[in-house]
Amino acid sequence: MTKIVFWKLSKKSLIIIFLLILAWVWYYVSQNYQSFVMNLYSKYQNIENQKFETNSKEIIKNFNDIPESIKNKVVLVWNPKSNIIIINTQWWPVNFLVTDEVAWILWEANISRKNVLLVDVHQCQTLQTKKFETKEISFEEAKECDKKSVEFLAKTVEYFKSKNKKVYVLWISFWAFIAQDLLANYPNIANKYIIEVWRLAMPKEVWKEFSKWNYVGFEYDKKWNKIIIPFNSEQAWMWWWNSIWDKNSSKLAAWLWYKRFIELLKDKNLENVVYVYGNRDEQVWRLSKKEIEFLKSKKVQVYEFDGSHSDAIDAFSEKFLKNIIFNN
Predict the structure, then answer these.
(1) 172 inside domain
(2) Quick one: the chain helix, strand, coil %, rounded to 5?
(3) pLDDT recorded at residue 49
């Protein structure tokens, strides 16, 4: 076997070898940096969750009659004595509970942790992390999982309202469809339902593609008409480290996205609902004229912001969220 003795190679050959190694490193990093970053984030979030859950067990002692059906499905943080309860369902499409995202939103809104009890509610998939990472689910299984997530949320709202608390339910982005399914299938009993950057009628071209694990998003032409375009996983906020989970997450989304909530909510009281959207939203597109007319006919508070998906979230949090929670 021929041995390569580097000190006998020409300077030109060494440069070529170095550039080849550099090219390989660059290719490897470009292909795997998202997985690496998300693995780090997952580990960080698991550590944070352990802290939150440890604290949550202490806080739950203030609610000695909390039903077993929700006791292990919620994480409570901040002030257990507060009369204001913010119930959150996470907005990232991941299979572990994310406990810091809504804290950031409330920080943007200048809401002090001394003044509220924050309740993060698990979803079906966040209680079965390994299953959703290792086994691709069917569309029927996605349907049953989504129903359980809505049920968890409904029971949580019901419990805290039974304690004569002011309950504000906050949904942002990807999982906001759970809010609409909650309103469609369970009594409207919270003080406010705040739904940010979502749709009442997701275009068929979108949910059909997601159900097949094909990501799409939106662009706008010069007349502000929508153009549905292919998205890569990062653009669709689906850039996770596990392709099986990505497929499962897409199915969970698609099952609720196909629903026509204008029809499902037409006989419901929505006067305590707040709806937020960006008029240049690249993730879910701006609300259509039909959707806006429906919401206004139901006396929903509609907030339009000039900007993207994230722009609308930030602008609403900074300008209106605190006032809605503390002055209603």
Answers:
(1) yes
(2) 50, 15, 35
(3) 56
